């Protein structure tokens, strides 16, 4: 579900967020229009508005865990977690977390990868959201859902700043809702 279709129709913050995201053609390979959120981070107001929209959505949903997908989910997740009174749990690439971890492999649009989480970071019955910058095929979010559900968490929703309009992976999210702020821009500034 796009934010603009659910209560935020005409909200000027969404256009400002979209405008603040850079587009890099042919990265990381030919034909990809890379959505660069680092330019969003440089725009204090657009960055704050991004976090505020997520906080407004999740503030009253009894969320106890904000799980951020490495690496760009780490940029939004901690601020959201602090604002809603939840803990932030990093979902990391292999061999980045010390101690005992559980892992979940998945397929990307251009390769394979794996997410890991510390054992004991999330408890059975906790209500969680998963945050990342962009959803393309849904593979990463699906792996994150499986990881959290393996330890007994209830994944309430996945949230991304950007969602590809041709996203076909929602069925891969095992019926979990997906909340997206903006669609990608195709032109560079």
TrEMBL record:
It is an enzyme of class 2 (transferase). Its EC number is 2.4.2.7. Its main location: cytoplasm. SUPFAM superfamilies: PRTase-like (SSF53271). Pathway: Purine metabolism; AMP biosynthesis via salvage pathway; AMP from adenine: step 1/1. Keywords: Cytoplasm, Glycosyltransferase, Purine salvage, Transferase. It comes from the Eukaryota. It is found in: Cytoplasm. GO terms for biological process: adenine salvage; AMP salvage; purine ribonucleoside salvage. CDD domains: PRTases_typeI. It catalyses: AMP + diphosphate = 5-phospho-alpha-D-ribose 1-diphosphate + adenine. GO terms for molecular function: adenine phosphoribosyltransferase activity. Homodimer. This is adenine phosphoribosyltransferase. It comes from Manihot esculenta (Cassava).
